[in-house]
Amino acid sequence: MNYKLLAERLLPGEYPTPEDYEAKYPPRDLPKGAEVTRLAPSPTGFIHLGNLFSAITDERIAHRSGGIVYLRIEDTDLKRKVDGAVEAVIGALKYFDVKFDEGAEIGGNETYAPWYQRQRAEIYRAFVKKLIAEGRAYPCFCTEDDLAALREEQTKNKEITGYYGKYAKCRNLSEEEIYKNLDAGKPFVIRLRSLGNPENKIKFHDEIKGDVTVTENDQDVVILKSDGIPTYHFAHAIDDHFMRTTIVIRGEDWLASLPIHIELFAALGFPLPRYGHHCSLMKQDGETRRKLSKRKDPELSLEFYRKEGYFPRAVKVYMLTLLNSNFEEWYLKHPDADLAEFPFKAEKMSKSGALFDLDKLNDVSKNELARLGEEEMFAFLKDWAEEFGTDTQKKYFADAEKMKRTLALCMGVGGKKRRKDFTTASQAMEFIRYFFERPAAREQYRTDAASKNAILRAFLARYRYEDDAQAWFAKVKEIAAENGFAAEMRDYKANPEAYKGSVADVAEVLRIATTGQANTPDLYTIMQILGEEETRARLQCAMENS
Ligand code: GLU
Predict the structure, then answer these.
(1) Is the domain defined by 283-369 classed in CATH 1.10.1160.10?
(2) Which end of the chain is more exposed for a tag (fewer CB within 10 A), N or C?
């Protein structure tokens, strides 16, 4: 068979030679040992924890070695482009402090552009043509129905499914048959003519999993689809070679395809990059562990963490805990260090599944939030509110002084005693809501309505904003005594029958009236933060609404 003529018929025209491409995309000018890594997502618009997992790994490996990490968009499978998907990837990862040195929508070293696979069609076709001309690839005219029938037959015979060996019908088509099909205008794909034998094992060193043994590939995989767009297998081989990736970090799902990639790189005459396959993120679901699922687990999406308002460092710290077995110990010793100082190592990554546990992340978050200073906390909540908060929440920050006093009281921000029960910005904002919005509803008072109103009336008559905490509390006690409540707790305990309740019930009336809630931080300070007018208005309103 004249493969050269066939190649010309299938992909007519002049294409640059491999040497041209080698010259166009020269090895990168980086110091010795510098690694080049990449994140290569499909622009589906869904960015998930797995992407962050890979991206942190890529970024750490590259930057710790003085190398670079780039963003390549693998859009070959996409029926239609999702608008804004690339910006969404960049934005989501930037939030977690993962920045790319070059790539789609980022720019950088233009030598290796473009970073969208759909814009690299010529180079893929050039190499497909070369493989056809060498007899290493051939057109396959099998229809979907043919392939389905083949799969069925193989399944029935309990054989490995796929297009290989004796099942690779189009592999041995005669020249005449091929041209007849082409003349008839039959659609075709291009397949690799595999030379592998599954009896042969290949020893392979994975940067994360260590030594693994894989079976040689014998599948005649599709490399160019009928629309002239390459498959992942082929495109990644071309791109990782010419973008000069030194380590391919990707999910362990791809380990099964590694034999295909080993054969493809060899067929193309490219040295194989190093690979590191990281484990999948698992979730404990009752008795079983399963992969996090897009459908069942909202926490898989990175959007979830931003919407909820997780502090980005907390998520990063937790991710690093999952990624590197020695991170937790290091972080205990260096709680204030820049996370970039951690000596991240691919070989310290978990070889089997990483168990993602939202409760653990929440614990990390509580600790991280409890470390934020006044300005940092203010900025964090404000930024969150700007992006995800209600219009009312955005206004909370207009009076910065009031916000800071509120944060100091509710969370201990700026003080020594920090509360450690805040996980997210959304939760904190909900907690401080009553400082900025009048209670729409109030919790149930323990006290009956008549006594409640009497207490509120008495308090309104006597309340003076200028009072200090002691004077304020003395008045609450007076009001208690005048209304049949024990002013001292011990009196009440000694003789509960003699009173309607205690000073605690009186304080509760004031508390619920002011905030809507029975449980709050120090009420005197709350009233000080609210101001006299607002406090009076709320008490008045509570008196009217029994
Ligand atoms: N586009 C592939 C994915 O999103 C990339 C895998 C790789 O990193 O090579 O899964």
Answers:
(1) yes
(2) C
Ligand 1, atom 3, residue with closest C-alpha: 41
Give the Å distance between the CA of 73 and the centre of ligand 1. 9
Mutate to test the pocket of ligand 1, among 69, 74, 208, 274 (most ligand atoms within 8 A of CB): 74
> CATH number of the domain at 3-15+122-278, out of 3.40.50.2000, 3.40.109.10, 3.40.50.880, 3.40.50.620?
3.40.50.620
| Cβ-based neighbours of 340, under 8 Å, separated by 6 or more | 60, 63
**Ligand 1 center to 272 CA (angstroms):** 17
Alpha carbon distance, N-terminus to C-terminus of the chain:
95
**Could you please report the per-residue DSSP string of 474-541?**
HHHHHHHHHTTEESSHHHHHH-GGGSSEEHHHHHHHHHHHHHS-S--S-HHHHHHHH-HHHHHHHHHH
Residue count of the chain: 546
Around ligand 1, the residues with Cβ closer than 6 Å are: 40-42, 74, 232, 236, 248, 250, 254
The ligand 1 atom nearest the CA atom of 38 = 8
By CB neighbour count within 10 A (0-12 exposed, 13-18 middle, 19+ buried), where does 19 fall? exposed
Measure 254 CA to ligand 1 centroid, in angstroms: 8
The domain spans of the chain are: 3-15+122-278, 283-369, 374-435, 449-544
What would the pLDDT profile of 477-527 be if each residue is shown by its tens digit?
A: 999 999 999 999 999 999 999 999 999 999 999 999 999 999 999 999 999
Q: Are strands 137-140 and 189-192 parallel, antiparallel or unpaired?
A: antiparallel
Say which CATH class 449-544 falls into. mainly alpha
> Positive or negative CA dihedral for 252, 254, 259, 265?
negative
User: Can you name the residues that pair with 213 across neighbouring β-strands?
Assistant: 203
Model confidence pLDDT, tens digit, residues 315-328:
999 999 999 999 99
pLDDT computed for residue 352 by the predictor: 80
User: Nearest residue CA, atom 10 of ligand 1?
Assistant: 41
Model pLDDT for residues 420-454, shown as the tens digit of each residue: 999 999 999 999 999 999 999 999 999 999 999 99
Q: Is 309 left (phi over 0), alpha (psi -120 to 50) or beta?
A: left
Instruction: Fill in the DSSP letter of residue 271.
Output: P
Pocket test for ligand 1, best of 37, 42, 77, 93 (most atoms within 8 A of CB): 42
pTM over 0.85: yes
Lowest-confidence range among 31-45, 78-92, 160-174?
78-92
